[in-house]
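Lab notebook: predicted structure, single chain.

Context: the supervisor wants predicted structures on file for every construct in the current expression panel, including those that have not yet been purified. This is the next one on the list. No modifications to the sequence; it matches the entry in the shared construct table.
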Amino acid sequence: MRNQRRRPWGVFLMAAWMTFAAATAAVAGEAEREELQPEVDQARTILNNFRKIPEKSIPDAVLREARGLAFLTVMRAGFIFSGSGGRGVVVARLPDGSWSGPSFVGTGGAGFGFQVGAQVSEFVLVLNTPEAVQAFAKGGNVSIGAQIAASAGPVGRSIGADVMPQAAIFTYSRAQGLFGGVSLDGTVVATRNEANEDYYGTKVSPRAILSGEARPPAGANRLREDLEMVTREAKAE
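Prediction complete. Output recorded below exactly as produced.
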């Protein structure tokens, strides 16, 4: 009889503990998502920065045909020995013309050279072909130039359709206010699986994200809306 009276309390305590654990996990998940949100917002900033100078912007003809875009913020710093590291996101255009949620990526490297100080650069990689998107959707590392052909992208918003496309990826950079196409041959861009899991709240593959299968968090909506606006304007030109 005594054990029977205690049993309901045990059930109650177990249910309370499970509720507490679930709430704690939800709070932790939201905190991790908030830590990554600035990287998604930075992609919006980069997109807008590259559109501010029409005569030296990514051509509308390029944006109209883009199958995907990658945004990276890279810091280079050093004194004689140099190093660089960057983070960002990749998005893909879906069959209905909308954009996928962001898949998190990063890049880094080290070198030897006579340089002092630090420099922050913004990069946009325009993915011109389905194969370029698939290279990022597979996860792991993407070696620009070696694994997939890339070239410095043409500039000038009014450039015609004859620029399309000479390479699977067009690459652009903006550093210290200067803008232009840039070669990124040899750069390795890696999928950040843990960041994807933290942002989406579950284990998710880059393929599921870039195909639109994974539903993006609400925080990604502003980036997706900006992308739709920019590509819609490019089509209207």
